[in-house]
Structures are given as C-alpha cells and as structure tokens.
Amino acid sequence: MHPIRHPRNAALVGILFVVIGVIFWAAPAYGGWHVDYAGTTLLMFLGAAMALMAYVLVAGSSKE
Prior knowledge:
Layout: H1 11-31, H2 37-59
C-alpha cells in the first residue's frame, strides 16, 4: 500500500513550517517586539526543504 495516495500532498508537510515561520515573523512585527529575522528565514527554508524531501521520499517509495 502506498503511504500517500497522491505524493504531491506531501508538500503539506513543508507548508506547515512555512506557516509557522510567517506567524513567527508576524506576531512580533505587529506586536511591536523584536523580530528574529534569522529564525524566520530558517523556518521558511526548513519548510521548503521538508516539502521537497517528503515528496521525494514518498514518490520514490514502493507502491506495494
């Protein structure tokens, strides 16, 4: 059995990290606090990397 019916849905794994990165930036920006741009950038790139690797791993898995 294939772990995910459509491997393109694996991108949702990475989108979660991107959403967390946006929240991590927006909360201090609109609250008037110090924004950690390094952490925001790393969360965004982590999301992209997680989405890509999840897609590659699921697309390359056997369909048994």
